[in-house]
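Marked as duplicate of an earlier ticket. Keeping the data here for the record.
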Amino acid sequence: MRKFIVSATVALVAAVSFAAPSQAGYYSYDYQPTCFIKKIKSYDYYGNVVIKRIKVCR
């Protein structure tokens, strides 16, 4: 009886340890990141305004 309880406990711990990381980073085929355009304003050597557009996705 004791061997059965120990083996069941080991199996349960193994199943939970593999299931926890898989739930942390859930991505499916339907996953779509949220994206937006970030504008960075800077100046070149001659003082002209340069606007750089960067696409940021999360």
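See parent ticket for discussion. The first helix runs from residue 2 to 24.
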